[in-house]
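Weekly puzzle thread! Below is a chain. First person to post its structure in token form gets bragging rights.
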Amino acid sequence: MSRTVTTRYDVAEHLRTPEEMAAYLEACLEESHGDAAFVAKALGDIARAKGMTQVARDAGLSRESLYKALSGERTPGFDTILKVLLALGIELHAAPLRT
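Winning reply:
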């Protein structure tokens, strides 16, 4: 009988294009229900897909502090979020709530 081998799913391995990254963040924002740490984790997934070292450099942050900020275990400051979005090439937009 053969053994089934499983591996942990890593969404960062499937975020290949800027459009996929933006769509993933959009979906996470919709599902977050105001949980900033959840959104930060999603940004961390995108940053890992793009290359954490380069994103940290482009955001003007150390790689270690970026990993901590986007771990999902804490809520980073809004200034950090804005720096990371800029480094990722993702724009933040506002729209009225859909009811």
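Puzzle host: Confirmed. Bonus trivia for everyone else. The chain is about 55% helix and 0% strand.
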